[in-house]
Amino acid sequence: VFLPETSVPAAAAAAERLRKHIESTSVHSENHQITVTASFGVSDYFQRTNSKTRETILSEFIASADQALYASKHAGRNRVTVYEPKEVAL
């Protein structure tokens, strides 16, 4: 989901609302009740564009959101994680 002109805290809050809604909704099938959860990764990588091409910006944006998503999954799933760039040691 792209949320243009949305701050990181607002995007994370939107993802959290969606996550909670998904978690609270059950699917009923014959004799079974199925509960679904979701993990989200939030990134604001577009703010770090410099002189990169659009393709590079989009690729890096998706990669950073994907890293945050996998951090959510590794931390136990069913959560929202905001991408934090790693500091480069000099």
Number of strands: 4
Helical residue percent?
A: 40-55%
> What radius of gyration results from the CA coordinates?
16 Å
Mean pLDDT across the residues is: 87
Largest sheet data: 2 strands, antiparallel
Total DSSP helices = 2
Distance between the termini: 35 Å
SSE arrangement, N to C: HEEEHE
Beta strand %: 15-25%
Q: Which class best fits the helix and strand makeup?
A: alpha+beta
**Uncertain segments of ≥5 residues (pLDDT<50)?**
none
* Strand order, sheet with most strands: 1-2
Could you explain the architecture of this structure?
- The structure is a single chain.
- With 90 residues, this protein is of the alpha+beta class.
- It is built from 2 helices and 4 strands; from the N terminus they run αβββαβ.
- The mean pLDDT is 87.
Helices, strands, pairings?
Layout: H1 8-24, E1 26-29, E2 32-35, E3 40-42, H2 54-74, E4 80-82
Parallel strand pairs: 3-4
Antiparallel strand pairs: 1-2
Name some characteristics of this structure.
single chain, 90 residues, alpha+beta, 4 strands
Task: Give a short synopsis of this structure.
The protein is an alpha+beta fold and 90 residues long.
